[in-house]
UniProtKB/TrEMBL annotation:
Residues 196-375 form the Phosphodiester glycosidase domain. It comes from the Bacteria. The lineage of its organism: Bacteria, Bacillati, Actinomycetota, Actinomycetes, Micrococcales. Residues 63-72 have a biased composition (Basic residues). The keyword Iron-sulfur does not apply. One of its GO terms (molecular function) is hydrolase activity, acting on glycosyl bonds. It holds the Pfam family NAGPA. Residues 1-72 are annotated as: Disordered. The chain crosses the membrane at residues 76-96. InterPro entries: NAGPA. Residues 36-52 have a biased composition (Pro residues). This is Phosphodiester glycosidase family protein. Keywords: Glycosidase, Hydrolase, Membrane, Transmembrane, Transmembrane helix. It comes from Brachybacterium halotolerans.
């Protein structure tokens, strides 16, 4: 049986994300580099990577779509700063193409999952109950804790969700706008709502780069090994692995369900790895050090089908200073985890439960990102 991959276009078709000669221009952000570049509504993360044709396929059960509203909002926000880069020549065109132009590779992710047979793998519970401390159903238990320590410049706040599930496919991923590609974003709370998520956190902001292995909900979207990743298997295992020693096809053959490509690992065999504060994830323009005390998002592993979503607030004196990678690993260890993996942080860090944002994002509100990881029910 062939491993499921996202569908690709026939070579004779017009490249994704670009206009065909007869396609109306009124419904697309221009891709011509001569068009004045437009700045993003939220700049790329200062501490970490920021982080075409309609289909008649219906979204999986339980998924709500608001793509029209999202696209309109994004166009308005992008258009608000058109004058900023106008007239700056080639550099503006390069920046527009690198950071702003949506490069759609898969225009209907829901259809790709349906074609692969992974759109609705687990039978989701209908008996879920929410409380101030979590969520319980016949398939899922979520226990929420909020911790605050210190005061003034030493104040620290973090939010942990301990998750126990009876089917690994209950933890799912969602892409902004239900599309896969670079520079495609939406607010995490919108992605969570569109997918009826019980609990969600921001993902790895895959769309800021073109490297890494990207498998989501059992479908392969990218196979460009580059760094240490995190893989979720359908049998409940969650493991840190070296992308450069394998491939997306091999992982799928082994039962991979989701992969995340950011890092580094902050906890291995119950211990913080030596040199974790010196790890570099990317060296591309727009990405700066991930070291120092920052807002953080991380995944911790306690056992099979037993994990932790962790978000640490930061850059807010009197509320939370943020943490370095060593301290992040130590928090996960204190929560009972034996391994832990760092995700996109800074202004991207957010935790959403029952439609409400639990933490205090450092931007004063949500940052639009590429993807979320969520608990379906």
């Amino acid at each position: 049986m062939n491993a499921p991959h996202a569908p690709t276009r026939d070579p004779g078709e017009h490249p994704p994300g670009q206009l065909s000669p007869d396609q109306p221009t009124s419904d697309r952000i221009p891709s011509d580099p001569s068009v004045p570049a437009q700045p993003p509504s939220d700049p790329p993360p200062s501490d970490q990577p920021p982080s075409d044709q309609p289909s008649s396929a219906q979204p999986p059960a339980g998924r709500r779509t608001h793509r029209g509203r999202s696209v309109i909002r994004r166009r308005v926000l992008l258009g608000s700063g058109v004058a900023l880069l106008a007239g700056t020549g080639g550099s503006a065109a390069w920046a527009y193409d690198r950071f702003l132009r949506e490069k759609v590779e898969v225009s209907d992710v829901s259809a790709a999952e349906s074609e692969a047979g992974t759109a609705q793998t687990a039978a989701l519970a209908t008996d879920g109950e929410y409380s101030s401390t979590g969520y319980t159903s016949s398939t899922t238990t979520i226990t929420l804790t909020q911790t605050e320590t210190g005061s003034g410049s030493e104040a620290l706040a973090w939010y942990a969700a301990e998750i126990e599930i009876d089917d690994a496919t209950i933890v799912r991923s969602a892409f902004a706008q239900d599309e896969f590609g670079q520079n495609i974003t939406a607010e995490p709370s919108e992605m969570a709502s569109d997918n009826s998520a019980v609990l969600a956190i921001n993902g790895d902001y895959y769309g800021f780069r073109d490297t890494g292995i990207v498998i989501r909900n059992g479908v392969s979207y990218r196979d460009e090994p580059a760094r240490d990743g995190l893989v979720f298997f359908t049998d409940g295992r969650i493991e840190i692995y070296d992308e450069t020693t394998t491939s997306a096809d091999e992982l799928l053959a082994d039962g991979a369900w989701n992969t995340l490509s950011f890092g580094p690992a902050v906890l291995e065999d119950g211990k913080v790895p030596d040199g974790v504060e010196d790890v570099e994830i990317d060296t591309n323009i727009g990405n700066h050090s991930i070291q120092g005390e920052q807002p953080r998002t991380a995944i911790g592993v306690i056992g099979e089908n037993h994990l932790v979503f962790l978000v640490v607030d930061g850059r807010s004196e009197g509320h939370s200073r943020g943490v370095g990678l060593t301290e992040l690993g130590e928090i996960l260890a204190d929560l009972g985890c034996t391994s832990g993996y760092n995700l996109d942080g800074g202004g991207s860090s957010v935790m959403i439960f029952d439609g409400e944002i639990l933490n205090e994002p450092s931007n004063g509100g949500e940052r639009a990102t590429s993807d979320i990881l969520y608990v379906a029910g």
